Amino acid sequence: MASNPILIPILGDQLTRTLASLHGRAKDDSVILMMEVWDEATYVKHHKQKIALIFSAMRHFAAELKEAGWQVDYVKLTDGNNSGSFTGEVARAIERHDPRAVHVVEASEWRVQQAIEEWPDKFACEVEIAPDDRFLCSHAEFEEWAEGRKHLTMEHFYRKMRRKTGLLMLDNGKPKGGEWNLDKQNREPPKGDMKAPARPRFEPDEITREVLALVEEKFSDHFGDLEPFEWPVTSAEAEQAADAFFAERIENFGPHQDAMVFGSDDLYHSMLSTSINCGLLDPITLCQRAEKAYEEGRAPLNSVEGFIRQIIGWREYIRGFYWHFMPGLEEANDLEATRGLPEFFWTGETDMRCLSDCIRSTKENAHAHHIQRLMVLGNFCLLAGIDPRAVQDWYLAVYADAYQWVELPNVSSMILYADGGALATKPYAASGNYINKMSDYCKECSYSVSKKTGDGACPFNPLYWHFMDRHRDRLSSNHRIGRIYATWDRMGDEKKDDYLSSAEKFLKTLEPARDGWARD
Q1: Is the pLDDT score of 479 beyond 70?
Q2: What strands lie across the sheet with 6-10, from one edge to the other?
Q3: What is the phi-psi region of residue 472: left when phi exceeds 0, alpha when psi lies from -120 to 50, beta otherwise?
Q4: How far is Cα 137 from Cα 470, in angstroms, rounded to an integer?
Q5: What is the pTM for the complete model shown?
Q6: Which residues pair with 342 in a beta bridge?
């Protein structure tokens, strides 16, 4: 090993062999630094499976790098002198290796990037911060696109990314199939006994078992079940999971992506977001595989377009939106919501069958699919006026694919409308009718979805009108929901009072969560 090498820190969501900081580096002139640090595991009290997934994936990635001939300096959480922070561990590594330079890829999260940008002033050696080229759209490109726009409409951004990549595009610049967005074909409710092929589940090896023991010992007070732990933790396992999706589930992914079935946690979803977001899978390669499935007649266009839109449209847009509005996005609360998060978000103990099932899946799997997150869990938080910071902490803590750059815009802006409409064109508020249409939850619920008010009525029904009434001054001018107030105005005073009093009665039953669930 050469003296004064290049020190290359790799973070837990940068587990990619083609990472920009590794481009063109000589293995005998580089030291890769990987760090398990207490600050990252506990800045919110992450789900046990989330911590296990990231630590196990990191340890497997480090082993792969060593096998490929790289020198890896790996700091475990339990190492005696572990400082507990990225900055502290880079400082200690500089003392050990006396590097001539530190080369790092920019962080995905604002708070980590702020720490990295202090490194040039803290360390005597040169610090080079490379852009994360695993994303299709750079920060500068997003800012250029956003400049001068009154509304940052995702659909417009998505079309830009389609043209940039050529995915599902014809030579004449038109989209294949004649339409850019086929979302209207992807809203089928569950039908009959809808059972999708099971996703691959991976048996923990020795490395993962060691991590599971560590998590059980050090994070026993964190939310969630630790086992069974079955997530892919290597790129090879993640590729197997992708193979299974493209072979068995993508055909029906589109039509049923919004469906919800009690006790069925995966359905036709890819379950690949955990692997994409920590770097084990390349998102553009997945999009190319989806397009190939369409070209070969193995998947319909609406399924393939829906999958591609989630990645090059929504995922890229959300990342750009996050950096465009940070750091203020964390504090946004345009609807002035102040209610505490109910205790049942941690325990799952509620008679609302939809919420109970979504929280059960979250607790058992560190996962719930996007409509469960948006239209059941998120919809409830919106209607009940839950404090955005409490909701942000919950979503960030409980989902294995949640990093702040993807969680915060989805929760603050999409779910809670806390930014006042910078992202969403309307609040995604819905009564029990939507949940009844898109799921089988209501059939055996203790509450009646057909009953609008009073004892036994589905709480979503009065909460919906309570929300609309209390935010009328803000929302009545919104062209997408203005007609809702015409419906409200046609109701008699007695009926209105019935809705509002039923909602107030229910809200008084909500027991706030005890302190310490999300943060110490």
Answers
A1: yes
A2: 71-75, 30-35, 6-10, 101-105, 126-130
A3: alpha
A4: 39
A5: 0.96
A6: 512
